[in-house]
């Protein structure tokens, strides 16, 4: 069957499904299940005969939307908050997983720019980090205490200040996405270049190992959450720039709702990062190296699994459960 005829034959049905997704037409769970099965059949056909077509991309997006609609109509028997973190957010991360990849690629690129800038311009760290901070850190390095800057102030006071500051940074990374994603990329550029120049600065003074022992105790949660928040900003921007078959306003509503849920999922990690920075990082050089590495590796395993691996696990599980329920 030619693609043009395939589209013409099913166009009205697909537009009807769009209206169901947008809430303009109400359907009971049984009808939604029938629509989903019908749409999956169309998607399978398109993947077989038009694998690189925009039609296949469109049907894949439509299928994921109707799938979520089905799953949300099922009665949630577990705690709502638990459901949010265990099921809803992972499904959204899976749907928008390419934006997480984009965010990490930009993060690596921008951080590399910070490192290269530090290599070719020895005064770059002073510009990015501030001259007083650099001078204080140099003095701490000379004293053999590379993470001395984290030892000032009270534990609880520092923790509260750090948490609110990091939430503010994350909010900017997300909200700036409303400028078509450009604002998010600018905010990510600023923070990533700072990180790159910061790490090279310690390397240049022969204190990279000591700084890493301290910085990455809290940095794993903090930086990873920052990248996920940038992902949310890119989703928001894409919903405005690329509405696909939806009106721009409806596309923005969906993009904002989905990205905001993912953004909320980063808050617990940001809070944990603040607590670690306020209470643990100040002891980074006095604690046993094995304890230090255990915290870093455990943190990376938890947040990496949650955003990279667990979404696929949840998607496969819920997809199988939904198929069983509709058959």
Write structural notes for this entry.
With 327 residues, the chain is mainly alpha-helical. It folds into two domains: 3-75, no CATH class; 93-314, no CATH class. The chain has twelve helices and no strands. The longest helix has 38 residues, at 289-326. The radius of gyration is 24 Å and the shape is elongated. Mean pLDDT is 87; it is low at 322-327. Pfam families: SpoIIM (PF01944). The chain crosses the membrane at residues 99-120, 173-203, 215-242, 262-280, 289-309. Keywords: Membrane, Transmembrane, Transmembrane helix. This is Stage II sporulation protein M. It comes from Chryseobacterium endalhagicum.
The helical percent reads over 70%
DSSP strand count? 0
Order of helices and strands: HHHHHHHHHHHH
The largest sheet, given as strand count, sense and whether it forms a barrel, is: none
Number of helices: 12
Mean pLDDT: 87
The 3D shape can be described as: elongated
Head-to-tail CA distance between termini = 28 Å
Tally of domains: 2
Q: Please tell me how large the radius of gyration is.
A: 24 Å
Proportion of strand residues: under 5%
| Oligomeric state of shown chains | single chain
Q: Uncertain segments of ≥5 residues (pLDDT<50)? A: 322-327
Query: Structural class of the secondary elements?
Result: mainly alpha
